Amino acid sequence: MTQPYVKSDINNQIATIEFFHPAHNSLPGDILAQLANTITEVGQNEEVLVIVLKSGGDRTFCAGASFKELINIQDEETGKKFFSGFANVINAMRKCPKFIIGRVQGKVVGGGVGLASAMDYCMATQYASIKLSELNIGIGPFVVGPAVERKLGVSGMSQIAIDANSFYDAEWARQKGLYTQVFETTEALDEAVKAFAENLCAYNPEAVKHMKQMFWRGTEDWDSLLMERAKISGKLVLSEFTKEKLKRFK
């Protein structure tokens, strides 16, 4: 696999949405847009009862923002537009009337932690350590912060946001509530995800829809909040501090 993609497949009322990028499943703007649109479209499909969100490859679930795009941002509007891509994906997941199961096979960095946090039920392997690296390059996890804080609590979120150089292992993430279960192998993870998704298909779709709304109560302002956060990140990415940090990724 060398070309980035977002694809979906529906089988027995279970929709599997998969994204991939050769740079450790990083997320450039076009992939973020495709991902948000796909989640919205699949969520509106009456044939679908459950959604599984996963990434391609064996190692990294998601490396977060595309450094190639970050380096090329030259003005605040472009910066805001890029970071709003993460806002759009999280809001699509939040508003989706179907439960979204996360299948996390490997490391999760930056914006990827936001994606994992926006899952309704997230399962992972022992290799799925997490890191919020944004402060390390001078930005801060502003857009994904509300989703991460909602799942890990203020204490857990602030710990990994401040300690921006460290990976926290999958068991730590499980104890904090990000992962529901941690498996030794990807094969075991896939078996568990499949069985769980099939089980959820027996639920009343209307009940699921109302339960999802109940679980996400208090996030109604995220359409505007996450865009405000995207504006902050879009400004910070232009700072001399961040530009100097990003030079090492060229």
On the 0 to 100 scale, the average pLDDT is 96
CATH arch. level architecture: Alpha-Beta Complex
In angstroms, what is the radius of gyration? 17 Å
Shape: globular
Order of SSEs = EEEHEEEHHEEHEEHHEHHHH
User: Level of helix content?
Assistant: 40-55%
Name the beta content range.
Answer: 15-25%
**Briefly, what CATH class?**
Alpha Beta
Ends apart, CA distance between termini: 23 Å
What order do the strands of the largest sheet run in, or round the barrel if closed? 1-2-4-7-9-11
Structural class: alpha/beta
Q: Uncertain segments of ≥5 residues (pLDDT<50)? A: none
Describe the secondary-structure layout:
Blueprint: E1 5-11, E2 14-20, E3 26-27, H1 29-44, E4 50-55, E5 60-62, E6 64-65, H2 67-72, H3 76-95, E7 99-104, E8 107-109, H4 111-117, E9 121-125, E10 130-131, H5 145-162, H6 170-176, E11 181-183, H7 186-200, H8 205-215, H9 222-236, H10 240-247
Parallel strand pairs: 2-4, 3-6, 4-7, 5-8, 7-9, 8-10, 9-11
Antiparallel strand pairs: 1-2
Helix pairs in contact: 1-3, 3-9, 4-5
Summarize the structure.
The chain has a single domain, classed as 2-enoyl-CoA Hydratase, Chain A, domain 1 (Alpha-Beta Complex), CATH 3.90.226.
Overview of this protein structure:
- By secondary structure, this protein is of the alpha/beta class.
- The protein has a single domain (5-186), classed as 2-enoyl-CoA Hydratase, Chain A, domain 1 (Alpha-Beta Complex).
- It has helices at 29-44, 67-72, 76-95, 111-117, 145-162, 170-176, 186-200, 205-215, 222-236, 240-247, and strands spanning 5-11, 14-20, 26-27, 50-55, 60-62, 64-65, 99-104, 107-109, 121-125, 130-131, 181-183.
- A six-stranded mixed beta sheet has the order 1-2-4-7-9-11, sandwiched between helices.
- Strand 1 and strand 2 (14-20) form a beta hairpin.
- Helix 3 packs antiparallel against helix 9.
- The chain is globular and about 55 Å long.
- The mean pLDDT is 96.
